[in-house]
Amino acid sequence: MKNNGDNAFEGFISSIVEDENSRVWISSSKEIYTTDDLARVQKYDAKNLIDGSINTLYADGNGTVWAGTTTGLFKINLSDRSIKRVSRSLIVNAIDGLGKSLYVGTSDGLYYCNQSDTTIMKLTEIGEKVTSLRIDPTYRSLWIGGENHVWITELDSQIRQIKMKEFQVNAKVNCIINDKSNNTWLGTGSNLGVSSSQNGLLKANYSNGEFNGPQKASLSMKDYNILSILVDRSNVLWVGTYAGGLYQFNNRRDQFRHFKKSTFKLLPSDIITAIYKDRGGNLWVGTLNDGLCIETDGNGSRFPIKPHGISTGEVKVIFEDSYGDMWIGTKDGLYHRMAGAQNFSVYKNRQSDSSSLSSNVVRVIYEDSKNDLWIGTNDGLNKFNRKTGDFLRFISDSKDSSSLSDNFITCIAENNAGMWIGTLGGGVNLLDKRTLKFCQFRYSTQNIQGIRGD
User: How far apart are the C-alpha atoms of 353 and 239, rounded to whole Å?
Assistant: First the structure.
């Protein structure tokens, strides 16, 4: 991929989406950027038609990218690249759509836009700023997150506010998870996917539109930050907390079962940082300072000792690849157990060996479309060679603009353009897998926590 020489973003990055042509669209607070046919990122020529700070982008899959700004809603036609202003005097914070219907969250409430004729109308008086929207296409439901409340509506019906019971939503809704029993679970707080200690885990029920905590253990869970959430293949919800142990939710009984180190001796810690259920039905539980344990009997009633070979205390990520192998990222190396094996092997940094792991602190594990493994660490990106057991390192070089922008890797994703690498201090990088060169995207807010393709 070629660098166009003008990839210094103006302002902070507000949104990254992908259209139906696999082009990536990136909005900063001041400009819109897009990839061309050669996967080069360039500033989109808006001809001064889009004004205000750009808050959000939405690709509808029907040939249009919608831009929400502090001065209104804009429609970008992908075929002729024309731009049309749809509304004025609206501060648009969130956009989502289904079919030809577009829902627009603003500082003045919720609006509906007909994509065909771009007519826009206010749906209801919510009474507060709309900060997030999510459409559940399976149940044709729209979730609306505000600064202090959450609403739900069946599409094409009147919006109703969910009645609050026991839990009050006094923080932004950051994480929404659907299970197979028509329940939606929300974590709230100041971090993405993590609940605040004031709000704990919230459960919403479609049938009666109520928010409530499960009847059992709701008060105790409310006191803990939620670090990890998993809905496994059997529709069982697992919740890992900070200092509160592990919870298992029984949908049929509408209650939690609580596992703590003090009562279940084989659970090594009450700080649960990672949860994973593998294809064999084994539950993997990673902790902050006391290693890993595996629950093997399928019902959560016992926790065996730590598996042989893992001596580190802090588990950061648990991953199962397409071959059924388990990979554990820790602060002291990358652990690997082949499918069907009992023991782990470990990959660590060796200072004299450039083909070893670049750092022992492993934060991200990603398998790409060719089944290659990419390992993100505190000190560089690594591509694993399954045949030799060696790693190809990608390290930041201040003298090379085609190198990685920063060595602290926070997230990895892939699309047709290549591998997208998020960093803590260097923004986003796009790796051309053919040339193994990076295009760096730098801007004022450099900390990237997640990358998503729409």
Answer: 40
Strand order in the sheet with 163-164: 163-164, 210-212, 201-205, 183-188, 173-178
Backbone φ and ψ for 221, nearest 5 degrees, come out as -70, -30
Distances (CA, A) of 24 to 18, 41, 351, 444: 4, 8, 38, 20
Q: Is 6 helix (H, G, I), strand (E, B) or coil?
A: coil
pLDDT of 207 higher than 60 = no
What is the spatial distance between Cα 49 and Cα 74, in angstroms, rounded to a whole number?
Answer: 9
Task: Out of 198-207, 225-234, 334-343, pick the least confident.
Answer: 198-207
Tell me the percentage of the chain whose pLDDT exceeds 90.
Answer: 24
CA distance 277 to 275: 7
CB 401 within 8 A of CB 411: no
Decide: helix, strand or coil at residue 219: helix
Task: Judge whether residue 305 has pLDDT over 50.
Answer: no
What are 74-114's pLDDT values in tens digits? 999 998 888 999 988 899 999 999 888 899 999 998 999 98
Phi, psi of 20 (to 5 degrees): -70, -10
Angle CA 364–276–383, to nearest 5: 25
**Residues 419 and 430 sit within 8 Å (Cβ to Cβ):** yes
Both tokens of 429, joined, read 């990088």
Segment holding 286, helix H or strand E? strand 283-287
Burial 178-191 (b: 16+ CB within 10 A, else e): bbeeebbbbbbbee
Q: How far apart are CA 327 and CA 376, in angstroms?
A: 13
Task: Tell me if 174 sits within 8 A of 188, measured CB to CB.
Answer: yes
Task: Grade residue 155 by pLDDT with cuts at 50, 70 and 90.
Answer: confident
Cα–Cα dist 188/181, whole Å: 21
351-378 mean pLDDT: 95
**321, 325, 328, 329 alpha-carbon torsion, rounded to 10°:** -50
Residue range 30-46, pLDDT digits in tens: 788 887 665 566 788 76
Q: Which helix (DSSP H) or strand (DSSP E) does residue 383 occupy?
A: strand 380-384
Query: Residue 8's beta-bridge partner residues?
Result: 442
Contact 429, 393 (CB under 8 A): no
The partner residues of 274 in beta bridges, in order of sequence, read 286
The mean pLDDT of the chain is: 75
Q: Give the strand order in the sheet containing 333-337.
A: 315-320, 326-330, 333-337, 345-347
